[in-house]
Amino acid sequence: EVQLVESGGGLIQPGGSLGLSCAASGFTVSANYMSWVRQAPGKGLEWVSVIYSGGNTYYTDSVKGRFTISRDTSKNTLYLQMNSLRAEDTAVYYCARGRDETSFFDYWGQGILVTVSS
Amino acid sequence: EIVLTQSPATLSLSPGERATLSCRASQSVSRYLAWYQQKPGQAPRLLIYDASNRATGVPSRFSGSGSGTDFTLTISSLEPEDFAVYYCQQRSSWPLTFGGGTKVEIK
Predict the structure, then answer these.
(1) Could you give the residue ranges of the DSSP H alpha helices within chain B?
(2) Distance from CA of residue A78 to its chain's centroid?
(3) Chain B nearest C-alpha distance from A96 (Å)
(4) A30 class by beta-carbon count within 10 Å (0-12 exposed, 13-18 middle, 19+ buried)
(5) Quick count: other Cβ atoms within 10 Å of Cβ B30?
(6) CB contact under 8 A, B46 and A99
(7) DSSP 8-state assignment for residue B2
(8) Interior CA angle at B5 toward A60 and B42, to 5°?
(9) Residue to substitute from B56, B96, B97, B102, interface A, most A β-carbons within 10 A
(10) Which pairing describes strands A67-72 and A57-59: parallel, antiparallel, or unpaired?
(11) pLDDT tens string A18-59
(12) Tens digits of per-residue pLDDT, B69-106?
């Protein structure tokens, strides 16, 4: 059974750093396109970043230079390192698997809340 | 960036009625469009990919159509569990973008 479980969220001050993890089971993270998608409270969905099976990465403009997506093959885990956090980064962050090496998301984690506030 | 505009923002219908949701892209996305359902407190669920293909386990009352810039999600007869928010998403170009959502509520 495919499962994605995020961890690492919480309350962080503006300008701070936080790392999110997404532990996968039932499939191999490194063989799939894996993304982070976020949702601000009461708002819609916003794609954040993707890492391809080949290792290429892409980011939405608002997080370029601040966020880094990566993976650990031995742990079958996806990561999102978030630096220089801003209030507008406050959201529930989901990790999601791309279906059949595309960026349509067929499996999602339960989401983890990141709150950036002083 | 491709902007996806969903309409209406809210659709008030009764169980058993037909729901028609629209998603319009600011430029052509070919057929690289998906639809998701999201219920409160839950992660989104993939319903339709490549404009008209149902994802695994999705009931046949859900159907998608369209290409280029205009897309439609149709729920042929609403079940109680279908009342939720629906989002479209394109993967034609970076950045990936989602529409603002349509809330299907019980009338």
Answers:
(1) none
(2) 7
(3) 10
(4) middle
(5) 14
(6) yes
(7) -
(8) 70
(9) B96
(10) unpaired
(11) 999 999 999 999 999 999 999 999 999 999 999 999 999 999
(12) 999 999 999 999 999 999 999 999 989 999 999 999 99
**Are residues B16 and B37 in contact, defined by beta-carbon separation less than 8 angstroms?**
no
Q: Which residues pair with B20 in a beta bridge?
A: B74
The pair of structure tokens assigned to A31 is 């063989």
Q: Which residues of B touch A59 (CB under 8 A)?
A: 95
CA-CA-CA-CA torsion sign (B50, B56, A58, A82): positive
Q: B6 near B25, Cβ under 8 Å? A: no
* CB contact (8 A) between residue A47 and residue B50: no
The answer to whether the CB of A84 falls within 8 A of the CB of A69 is no
Positive or negative torsion for Cα A79, A85, A88, A91? positive
Q: Which two tokens stand for residue B74?
A: 């149709």
What is the rounded CA–CA span in Å between residue B9 and residue B87?
Answer: 11
